[in-house]
Amino acid sequence: LMEYIDANMPRAIELLKESVNVNSGTLNIEGVKKVGAIYRRELEKAGMKTEWINMPDSIKRAGHLVASTPMANASADVNNKNAQKPKGKKLFLIGHLDTVFEPDMPPNPFTMINDSTATGQGANDMKGGDVVMIIALQALQAQGLLKDAAITAYFTGDEEHAGYPREVSRGDFIERAKKAEVALAFEGANGLRSVATARRGASGWKLEVNAKTGHSSGVFTNSAGYGAIYEAARIVNSFREQLSQEKYLTFNPGLFIGGSDMQYDDAKSFGSTIGKTNIIAPSAVVIGDLRFLTEEQKNKARAVMSNIVSNNNLTGARAKITFQDGIPSMAPTEGNDRILNIISGVTVDMGLGATVAGDPGSRGAGDISYIAAYVDCIDGMGASGRGAHAVGETIHLYELPFLIKRAALTMHRLTR
């Protein structure tokens, strides 16, 4: 395995370059499909059966690429009682084809910065991680080590901006994952000896405030009240006072709008207002996100926020808050820790030292979170670099051989 990976590193870099140079912003449907075709070609070289999962036109997304080993297909056939069983764990590998860089953004083709670092759109997040997975699978196939392994590799086409409803855009993804026992996601690595055993989830909230209006000379009086902007400011500041010190919990107001004549478009998250200073503002809207490590933490935070909104309202003001579920969290579990121990054994045997769990607060939500309730999960198995989601995103090519070897050995040990 190690020799194969070393010998094929030039080909791995070429595969990375080929896919990075195709714009595959989430909304660039043809670009996403083109990257899918590139990876499909390479996965079939690993002896895997591939298929494309189309999305309904209403979702406005390209779809997903799925590749499975013969054993994964056989073990998934519950009606075949004579089907051969895999020796080890059934694996579900996760990548994604899309990036945050749409065609109208500044181009950033694959470019070598020096002999060990390159830049390019999505080079790190996550085409580098996709290449780690694919070359590891090809290395296993070349040694005849996929014959008894049940592995499904799933590359979503809209990880950066998942289509709605999520029940449709992630329905097939979740159902296939439920048939596995261990999920390994190839989002960005934080060095050679760290992986994610937990990731925070993400959800949204919307605060709406209505109040008495009138001439500003009467503000703060019992007859005129305080207006909507003061009440919205009180509420948001109370969120900060009561919740901002809780570990792994964050909430960020992304839009705060109010005024004497306000219009807000929910679908576009866009608003406009007339702000006459001599009129007490009758309405205000605030929208934001809420990130959390466990469902319990999310629900407790929502309860505190709802209590702040409904109690101690300023004179003349009424407020309500609504919450929108987004991506669930990948909570830390004993099962995740057991997989971490296997990976740590790999890195120790490679001479790199023990692998540790990274800080969940350093990562946002990801596709693996949709299935964390059903299988043991590890994320951060992909490439390493800097500046993800920004122009000039880089990938550390000098770490790529070690990360591919770590991935291949981890898959090998899990499937024995």
Mean of residue pLDDT?
Answer: 94
Low-confidence stretches: none
What distance separates the N and C termini?
Answer: 15 Å
Shape: elongated
Oligomer: single chain
Strand residue percentage: 15-25%
Helix content: 25-40%
If you had to describe this structure to a student in words, what would you say it looks like?
- The structure is a single chain.
- The chain is α+β, with helices and mostly antiparallel strands.
- It has eleven helices and 18 strands.
- It has helices at 2-7, 9-20, 29-45, 70-76, 123-142, 166-169, 171-177, 228-243, 295-310, 334-349, 400-414; strands at residues 49-53, 64-68, 91-96, 111-114, 117-119, 151-156, 182-185, 194-195, 201-211, 250-259, 261-265, 270-274, 283-292, 317-327, 356-357, 376-378, 385-386, 394-396.
- The strands form five sheets. Strands 1-2-6-3-7-16 form a six-stranded mixed beta sheet, sandwiched between helices.
- A hairpin with a 7-residue loop joins strand 17 and strand 18.
- Helix 2 (9-20) crosses helix 5 (123-142), helix 5 (123-142) crosses helix 11 and helix 10 (334-349) crosses helix 11 (400-414).
- The radius of gyration is 25 Å and the shape is elongated.
- The mean pLDDT is 94.
